[in-house]
Amino acid sequence: MNGDCFINNSFSKFIEIKGKDSTNFLQGLITNDINECKVDNPIYACLLTPQGKFLADFFIIQIIDKYLVEIHEKYFEMFISKLKMYKLRAIVDFSINESISSIIFFAKELQKIPKDIISFQDPRHPNIGQKLFINKNNLKKINKFKELDFKKYKEILMKNLVPYTPDDLIENQSLLLENNFHNINAISWEKGCFVGQEITARMKYRSLLKKQIYALEILSGNINPGDYIIQKNINIGSVISKTGQYVLCMLKINLIKNKSLNKEKIKTDSNALLKFL
Question: Which CATH code for domain 210-277?
């Protein structure tokens, strides 16, 4: 990334969770360890179905006596309803905070960020920027930096094999390990039970993974989301999403493992030429 710049994540919503049972309440729901969530150590986590299928992903940061959750607007209503459903007799309250904007910031000198802005390195990967939570009335504080299109952010995520879940995952169908969540700090294997934990752990410890996501660059030809990737009449997978000249694909591990490790090129039967990143 050349120079200091930012991307406005206008799709984010914020939820405040507080109450004396809030820590234990969240610990039994989310895939990551809420006890690792501190003021200076936000976490990334998911909510799953009891069958281990993806429902939503989000960031959590602790602020004094409450947790602040950043979640995509696509999952917002469902997530609130799930919190209310699982609440039962727990002493915990939920409220919406509409005063915050979510910014992704890329800078060589992190001290340029004003102290009154919540800032932290995105815990998923060191190459995908720093996250800023800033009051909407204070957005002028970052206007001196260059603003990039959100499509650029999606490209950065894809090149680093970090799914942009609203486009790349299917609610109530996708599995975390197939989508690289075990490599982007979304799951704690030591914390104990969470909703969907048994299925997720079984896939890990019994080596049941048959397919997973890969990022490839389109060198020539054309290929689009939903297309099958067929090489020499063998279906090796399909395209999940596309950003610029890059595609995120779900591929069969046994058919492309060596090709991926060696960064080989794939010539499809439809004459598209792809290269593993």
Answer: 2.40.30.110
